Amino acid sequence: MSSALASEADLLGGGVSPRIDRGDLGGICRSRNVLPGVVKTGAYRYEDGTRYVGDWNQRGQKHGMGHLSLPDGTRYDGAFQNGLCGGLGVMCFPDGAKYEGEFMQGWFHGHGVFWRSDGMKFEGEFRGGRIWGLGLVTFSDNSHGFPRNEGFFQDCRLVRKKRCPDVVQRAQKVALMARAQCSS
After folding, report:
1. Which helix (H) or strand (E) segment is 127 a member of?
2. Nearest 5°: phi and psi at 147?
3. Cβ neighbours of 9 (radius 10 Å)
4. pTM score of the predicted model
5. What secondary structure, in 3-state letters, does 9-53 show?
6. Over its length of 184 residues, how does the chain's per-residue pLDDT go in tens digits?
7. How many angstroms separate the CA atoms of 182 and 28, rounded?
8. Which is nearest to 80 in space by CA: 124, 48, 116, 44?
9. Is the peptide bond before 147 cis (omega within 30 degrees of 0)?
């Protein structure tokens, strides 16, 4: 399996976000609900140094809750579906950047919060590993820019200004749920 990783700076600057589809080790997430299809829990170290601890399905794929550590220091704690990050999770990058939110088929997808290592953050909607949808940018000085960087983003760029407090609040709630799931 392969992994296409890009730095977090690429996310707000137009690059591709990481899609994780291999295993790792670290702090394992725990959940009260067991996903259908989970048949065992265990750990595996891949030849490249990637480590995974968590749940597996009958086909030997990561499935359920787990912790993935990549050789470059990237860590993912959260849900897996059929070998890929899927559901709620937290991804931390070696440079200090972090994403908390929803994943689908290995990509940031749905609502979430992404913090760059320089303190800038985006709270809102993601599609296919990109900032795509409604959201709000907050700079490291807690300003939102002038004019305010809030509205509809397409491929990491603000294309239409619009107030979207409900989407921002949902992204914050989803990030909190992902973080709580991984700290219990």
Report:
1. strand 121-127
2. -70, 165
3. 16
4. 0.81
5. HHHHHCCCCCECCCCCCCCCCCCCCCCCCEEEEEEEECCCCCEEE
6. 333 322 233 333 333 334 444 333 333 344 435 567 888 999 999 999 999 999 999 999 999 999 999 999 999 999 999 999 999 999 999 999 999 999 999 999 999 999 999 999 999 999 999 999 999 999 999 999 988 999 999 999 999 999 999 999 999 999 999 999 987 6
7. 7
8. 44
9. yes
| φ and ψ at residue 140, rounded to 5 degrees | -65, -20
For the CA atoms of 176, 98, 38, 106, what is the dihedral angle to 10 degrees?
Answer: 120
CA pair distance 50, 29, nearest whole angstrom? 17
Question: CA-CA distance, 43 to 27, in Å (whole number)?
Answer: 12
DSSP letter assigned to residue 182: H
